[in-house]
Write a structure and sequence with these properties.
The protein is 41% helix and 19% strand. The chain is globular, with a radius of gyration of 20 Å. It is built from 13 helices and 16 strands. It folds into 2 domains: 3-134, Enolase-like, domain 1 (2-Layer Sandwich), CATH 3.30.390; 139-369, Enolase-like C-terminal domain (TIM Barrel, Alpha-Beta Barrel), CATH 3.20.20. Strands 8, 9, 10, 11, 12, 13, 14, 15 and 16 form a 9-stranded mixed sheet that branches. A 3-stranded antiparallel sheet has the order 1-6-7, sandwiched between helices. It has 383 residues and is α/β, with parallel strands linked by helices.
Amino acid sequence: MPITAVEAVPVRIRRDEAYLGALPPEASARGYFLRPPYRALYSVYFETVFVKITADSVTGWGECLAPVAPEAVATLIDQLLAPALLGRDPLAVDVLWNTMYDLMRERGHYGGFMLDAISGCDIALWDLRGKLLNQPVYTLLGGAYRESIPCYVSGLPRPDDAGRVALAQDWTARDFHAFKLAAGNGVEADAASIAALRQALGPDATLLLDAHWVYTLDESIRLARGLEAENAAVLEAPINPEDLAAHVQLAAAVAIPIAIGETERTRYQFKPWLIQRGADLLQPDVGRTGLSELIKIARMAEAFNIPVAPHLSVGLGVCIAASIHAAAAIPNLYMLEYQPPVFELANTLLKTPLVCAAGSYHLPEGTGLGVTMDEGKLAGMQA
């Protein structure tokens, strides 16, 4: 039962409202744009790369987190990874991951697009294994610690505090009680936004703040102490992700848990954060780590008594399903991210929609990841 086909499917889907809210006026004229105060490129499209891997006439689906330049990831899969996988045993979990990782390891490509490409293939292989063995992926990962996955509503994409409060109150009425604010608008403004949410939602709401890497160490300490006064739960991504030393100082100086992880892709990259205590909560993203590494990262974090909250931003149906399976299979889960606009779009690409209701994801039913892509819809969306 060797692998007989590996196919990358880059996808670009136009939306009126992009990730984190309405498109700025200048974005309509070009594919990518900046959204100050954030420094990363954003796209006017939802962009991703799906991966199909076939063995014994059975197909597994994967997805790489590719919010920009999905063709770059697809090229790596087609030219480097597919030849290394064809003819191999799809059940050889660690062997295949290491085979892919070793292809460019000595050249320094142990991050970035190369690991994103590996992650999509790795997820597809887990889906394929589940289908071949007639088991859900969470069983192959060691079993489900939980059948419903607690989540937090992420982003609150409205331009002012009044709008963000109204959106959070709308979700509260649907029995969601945990919220992450996409912030980074200045220490005082961020603290005021959390204060507005706390006043409106009451003492029992769980509030997280994502600073998008915009602050210095001193600013982060000031912000953290302001968040502590509002009993906020987590401060995510406060300082440049390369600056481990500053995160170590921050984590030691404040009581609020510091979260990092969406930029890292392997256990090797997470290891120094754990050893040096630079984070209190890890956020690996399955679209960048794959399932194999995410589980290993979570197990490594468990040894340090550190919880894991898988990052889940613009990954579509397969990434979401893979994240749910991983979240079910790790004992040290905090919560899983929930992006309502992305989730809604993802479900339009699936033959059977995923379910997130009353503050929790439901485990997909069936073998593998429990999702089936609608290839007819994908055909008109390929980049």
